Task: structure prediction
Amino acid sequence: MLKKLFKLTALIFILICAALILYSWYLSVRVEKRFSSRRWSIPSSVFSDITLLYPGQQINLRFFNQKLLSLGYREVSHNPKKKGEKKTSNSEIFIYLHDLKIPSQTREGFPVKIGFSQNRIETIVHAGTGKPAPILELEPEEIMQFFGPEREMRHLVSIHQVPEYLIYAVLSAEDGRFYQHHGIDPRGILRALYTNLRHGAIRQGGSTLTQQLAKNYFLTPERTISRKINEALLSVIIEAIYEKDEILEIYLNEIYLGQKGSISINGVGEAAFFYFDKPVSDLSLIESATIAGLIKGPNHYSPYINKTRCLSRRNAVLRAMHKKGWITDSQLQAALPLKIQTAGYNLQGKKAPYFIDYLSRQLEKLYPTKVLNSLGLSIYTTLDTQVQAAAEKALEKGLARLEKSNPALRRKKGEKKLQGAVIVMQPKTGYILAMVGGRNYTDSQFNRITQGRRQPGSAFKPFVYLTGLDDFTPASRLSNEPITYMIDGKPWEPQNFAPSDELDVSMRSAITKSFNLATLDLARKVGLDKIIKTTERFLFSTPVKPYPSLALGAFEVIPLELARAYCVFAANGMQPYPLSLKDVTDENKNIIKQKHMNIERLTSPAKAFIMSSMLQSVATEGTARSLISRGIWWPVAGKTGTTNDFRDAWFVGYTPDILALVWVGFDNQDSIVVTGSAAALPIWADLMNSIPQYISEEWYKMPTGVVKETVCSESGLLAHKGCPESMEELFLKENIPTVFCPVHKKPGLLRKIFDFMRKDENDNKK
Result:
């Protein structure tokens, strides 16, 4: 009987051992598979464009200081000694620059002094060498990250980058016998058991670093016997397969160390930046002890939550390091009294949310979501955060001003409020510098720049006039008299916005004063079919019907497409693709090849130049002339737009360097009661006045194919001395007038002699 019992026991033991071996083999396969593949999902980071600074540049100091704050520069009372520090005075900003790492350039941080006079940069000097710098590049600003479901932020580091202080601090706090045990530490378990029994409560854990790593990687946090057995088995297997330093490196990159809003801070590399704004290799003894102390309870001991608890825990770690012999008596005594100096952080809301949504849609066409939230890409965009801030502020102020001047425009519910949208682009590149798709992203995520469809009104007229340049000139005469059109058997009697006694006007005057009747006359002469072809060529995606009202913008457009179309005038006839994305690099900073969008020529430089000239007249003499009184002293071109019943107000304005479109209206198409020049134009002016770095007195140079001629202001033909008023006008080379003005008589021979004698007499008097 005993023999049978012994055999049965032996068999059961063998089966248990076999099962244990098989289960251990299964666990080892899991461990190797998990550790040999990608160990962590690293979110992709999205960055703004770099900021260029140079002597002589106008600058908005308020937005510039906001930029420095967003880039993580901290104000100090002494001259900056470390990267990320700055000292500000009335006439100078002394900055110790961060490193610059972008696809096209890498630069170590260095101290620099930027001298100001009012809102102008006077000098940029390298504070280390004293040499002047002709140009300075500020690093891009991180504006968002694409997180996976865990929402973990992690900066991977090698064990060789981690200072000895931090390694000793972590081992002192969590596992002082890490290099002596093999995954499980019986001595540590007994010590923890004794401590807990003595205090009658859980005061100490017996888990090794390897056990913590096994739990974090493979197990749930539940406290059961089966989980502890799995944890022990996994720890032994990990220790059998991997070297101690490799295990420690994985642990240091994995460990949870705090919270930034909804984002968890994982790993010592990210913690070093989060708490002290420095790479892990630069951590001091007390900073290392602080981070090690957080492992026990990251949010309980966080210096951002309770500095007293954090200090007590840090000092406990320092004493443990001293007990182990890893720091000296003098080091301990010097460190204990020191306060904890953190970098501080601002938990900001989503930056440029409408721009980010547009960028996300472009990225989704290039990369799967899993790639964006796991492969640690660096995404460099076209966004200028100073321009974005200026656009948001200008729209906010402009809409509030309209509501104050007309209380009937106020609405209580967010989704029904007066709305507006702004886009700012570089016309030659198509780079989107700023995008504001609505008044408040929280209230409405509908992007009125990219998703809205609104009638452009008079803002469409330039494309009618461009079409007319094949057969007409800025001096050509147009009828501004009322006329009745028959549309589908019904009469249509359009009117000018305001009554005018000018019944015969030049093409330049017609667009300058935005005459509806003269524009319709031009459209009738040119042909609606040609205007429709222009809209197709300029890539307006909304369907257009051949009705005369087309010339007055009585069809819907997407604002982004309208802004892109205006870029053709601003970019010498070339139409760019609207770009939010510049470069993408992988986690090793290698540039990932991407599809480049084509820039197409849609009209000649000569026609674009003449259109810009006529649109400049709009800004100086026409419907946008109030720009001058609003501080816009430099040359600009632009066009206002107002639709029927004042449902939409527009202004699109540009210089050779920058173009901005502003739209104002209600989503439900209620009337806003005012015109584009009263509603949208002031917002555009406020925006431009806030970004003086983009102000330039330069204007377009006259290209080949354009000539100036003196014409009679009444007939538009070549002027002679009999014309009472003449003016210079621009013409395409092939459309130069060859006929002298027939309206006024040429002076006869006697008249010419008399004029000559009078001129000679006047010259003698002088």
Summary: The CA atoms of residues 585 and 591 lie 4 Å apart.
